Amino acid sequence: MSEKGTDRVKRGMAEMQKGGVIMDVVNAEQAKIAEAAGATAVMALERVPSDIRKEGGVARMADPRITEEVMNAVSIPVMAKARIGHITEARVLEAMGVDYIDESEVLTPADEEFHLLKNDYTVPFVCGCRNIGEAARRIGEGASMLRTKGEPGTGNIVEAVRHLRQVNAEVRNIVAMGEDELMTAARDLGASYEFLKEVKLLGRLPVVNFAAGGIATPADAALMMELGADGVFVGSGIFKSDQPERFARAIVEATAHYQDYALIAKLSKDLGPAMKGLEMATIGAADRMQERSW
Amino acid sequence: MMKIGVLALQGAVREHVQAIQACGAEAVVVKNAGQLAELDGLVLPGGESTAMRRLIDRAELLEPLKQFAQAEKPLFGTCAGLVLLAKAIEGQDASHLGVMDITVARNSFGRQVDSFEADLDIMGIEEPFPAVFIRAPHIVSAGEDVEVLCEYGGRIVLARSGPFLGCSFHPELTGDPRLMQLFLNMVENRELLPTEAHYSRI
């Protein structure tokens, strides 16, 4: 008797990504560069977040041809993004056999009230969160992996740091709480009581949590690991830098050896300009991707 | 107390550390070659084998790991770790450590949507063992000296060869310590090769 699509199988796949770097790619050539650099998975998409931000318009699931091309090019897992609440995009990606779906705020949401019921799928999902309430609701819907959101496509680490610190501080608070305080915390955080009990018992989130949204340099990636991320997503940071291959390799190595500062110094030397990046104050409220999801 | 390392470049390190500790041994998180000397055995965890290999190369760990194996120190590879141990990998020109006389096929049960859980009958373990297969490899063929400990659906998924133990699945994900215990028994009972220290005492 064998069983597919169980929580263990879906969450376990994310456990195997730990300590790794998942890279955004838009074609087979970039996917091969990512794999050769030591990425643990690639995220196939049509435009990286910084281009979505620049070009505007509605951002949707990538053309299946691109996703297929990436799947055929590499042997590491391939992830792909579906719009929040877009049942059909998610089912299409599942039918294509992608290894993980990112129900992502980087794309334009299809539903401004409801997320996907991810428990219904065999394919596992990763979702963004900024705090433990969002984390709890996404896991409740069936997400098997989380990523703190940061602000995608900015090359600015400040929001990624804010969100990871927020989630981790809330986890520590819950672990320190008395059993009798959990119900009120559940009400205040918008998290289920059962979820908080599990976090308290485990002393951590029940699924793997990567950092995302603004990582542009090896030191940025190492910082997120230092702050307790299980791994990192790098979107625009690699292929919008001057030397993608070297950036990719350096970010992989810095993530694995995040407390070897002499090594990070060596890796960062003469890398050339990272992506230019954006100051948060220049991004209007309507353009903040992190506000999307509920 | 036995000291068992877990290669900690990438993958499910924490789970193996917990399994080692649950069996009463000391676990060491290994990131560089200097740490290998103090170990009685080493676990190569699940993760992404291609990513791990890149990190092994950049940390200059390939030769030290091969020497560790050549000194007949026990190694236990799970999933990606099995791929690292294998002498040959289907569809690839080169192997990684290449110390275990087996040929493996990567991702041989399909993509993630085909990943599954199943109970296995393992030689030497009485009750069925809960196993999680994630984009798992399997052992396509094994040399004469390799002892096949478990097959699933006609495919070899667990084998032992001298001091090396390898499996397709992830015992670290189910919290069942019996396979880790089997490895620790191998470590404890291995016949020590004569070392320089032995000779100097004679």
From TrEMBL, chain A:
Record: residues binding D-ribose 5-phosphate: 24, 153, 214, 235-236
GO molecular function: pyridoxal 5'-phosphate synthase (glutamine hydrolysing) activity
Record-listed E.C. numbers: 4.3.3.6
Residues forming the catalytic site: 81 (schiff-base intermediate with d-ribose 5-phosphate)
Residues of the PdxS/SNZ N-terminal domain: 7-212
Reactions catalysed, as given in the entry: aldehydo-D-ribose 5-phosphate + D-glyceraldehyde 3-phosphate + L-glutamine = pyridoxal 5'-phosphate + L-glutamate + phosphate + 3 H2O + H(+)
Pathway stated in the Swiss-Prot or TrEMBL entry: Cofactor biosynthesis; pyridoxal 5'-phosphate biosynthesis
Class of the enzyme per the UniProt entry, highest EC level: lyase
Top-rank taxon, per record: Bacteria
Pfam family, any one: SOR_SNZ
Keywords associated with the record: Lyase, Pyridoxal phosphate, Schiff base
Entry keyword annotation includes Lyase: yes
GO BP, sorted A to Z: amino acid metabolic process; pyridoxal phosphate biosynthetic process; pyridoxine biosynthetic process
Residues noted as binding D-glyceraldehyde 3-phosphate in the record, renumbered to the chain: 165
CDD domains assigned to the protein according to its UniProt record, in alphabetical order: pdxS
UniProt-listed Gene3D superfamilies: Aldolase class I
Keyword Transferase among UniProt keywords: no
Protein's job: Catalyzes the formation of pyridoxal 5'-phosphate from ribose 5-phosphate (RBP), glyceraldehyde 3-phosphate (G3P) and ammonia. The ammonia is provided by the PdxT subunit. Can also use ribulose 5-phosphate and dihydroxyacetone phosphate as substrates, resulting from enzyme-catalyzed isomerization of RBP and G3P, respectively.
Family: Belongs to the PdxS/SNZ family.
Quaternary structure (record): Homohexamer and homododecamer. In the presence of PdxT, forms a dodecamer of heterodimers.
PANTHER family per UniProt: PYRIDOXAL 5'-PHOSPHATE SYNTHASE SUBUNIT SNZ1-RELATED (PTHR31829)
Protein name (record): Pyridoxal 5'-phosphate synthase subunit PdxS
Origin species: Planococcus rifietoensis
Gene name linked to the record: pdxS
